[in-house]
Amino acid sequence: MIFKIAFLQILPGKSLDENFLIGKKACIEAKERGADIALFPEMWSDGYDLPQDYNELNHFAIEKESAFLNGFRDLASELKMAVGITFLEAHRPKQLNSVIFFDRMGREILHYSKVHTCAFDLEKVLDGGDDFYTADLDFGRGTVKIGSMICFDREFPESARILMLKGAELILAPNACPMEINRLSALRSRAYENMVAVATCNYPEGHPDCNGRSTLFDGVPWQADGVRDMCVFEAPKEPGVYIAELDLDQLRMHRSSDIMGDKYRRPDRYSVLSDNSVCGVIGGEFVHW
To answer: What is the predicted pLDDT for the residue at 276?
Structure first.
């Protein structure tokens, strides 16, 4: 069973209304090309523009029940195609970096806010999300269990691990940063160690600090005839709507027979991971303070 993902690797406009129209056009193209879901890059509502002044930031933030999001809800229903739309979400005390997934009937099935914000940089003006979530996405020919992480979340193995433990088969990851060998390797690792597919949609070259290269790692590192490359799709740097195919049958066969994921974990040995008094490693030793 093939599941088709559209990466909307496109440049934003200069306003919320313009971004809706650009996004709508891209979604229509995705549907015409047979996509089951269209995924936007990170914080599409304002093109990942993050003013550091809170009053200005509040002006950019939108409510969950805004006309912008309801427009994509209606579009998903009209096109009979799922849509993962990203936005700067109005929230107190600080705003959130969020994504909502609407299924092909226009029903909201997943709402996730970035847990690992880039608090060392522009996202210090944002709050982080509380948890990771999964949902069953009915795409007409079948169902796939999806989850989401956003950009910097990928650098923390716990993000994808929690989603795997909650049943995710496919992690959909909006992004806004330069994709190079190290970040791509992190995505590859999340797919390999959890036996999940990871689809990442980035802004194209021409957007500040971005370079396209949206990817699909399908989570299947080998088959009976040997080792294979899990990167089954990588977009070029240029803007465009790119379609990648995920073989769900192949992924599910791998998950049922291989040794990764949850099969041989030893959570009784991982207590240090939840010990908040452990703050770092110096000279190979854990340092508590």
So the answer is: 76
For residue 130, give every residue at least 6 positions away whose Cβ sits within 8 Å of its Cβ, in sequence order, or none: 113, 115
Tell me the residue ranges of DSSP E strands in the chain: 2-9, 37-39, 82-89, 96-102, 108-113, 134-138, 143-148, 170-174, 197-201, 215-217, 222-223, 226-227, 231-234, 240-247, 278-282, 285-288
Domain holding 38, by residue range, is 2-288
- How many whole angstroms separate alpha carbon 111 and alpha carbon 91? 14
CATH number, domain containing residue 133: 3.60.110.10
Q: Give, as one character, the DSSP assignment of residue 115.
A: S
End-to-end CA distance of the chain: 52
Number of domains the chain is built from: 1
The pLDDT value given to residue 272 = 87
Q: Where are the alpha helices (DSSP H) in the chain?
A: 16-32, 54-60, 67-79, 157-165, 181-194, 248-257
Q: What are phi and psi of 270, to 5 degrees?
A: -110, 20
Q: Which of 123, 61, 133 is nearest to 101 (CA)?
A: 133
- Is the pLDDT at 45 greater than 70? The verdict is yes
- Whether the pLDDT of residue 90 is over 90: the answer is yes
Partners of 100 in beta bridges: 85, 111
Q: Is 222 helix (H, G, I), strand (E, B) or coil?
A: strand
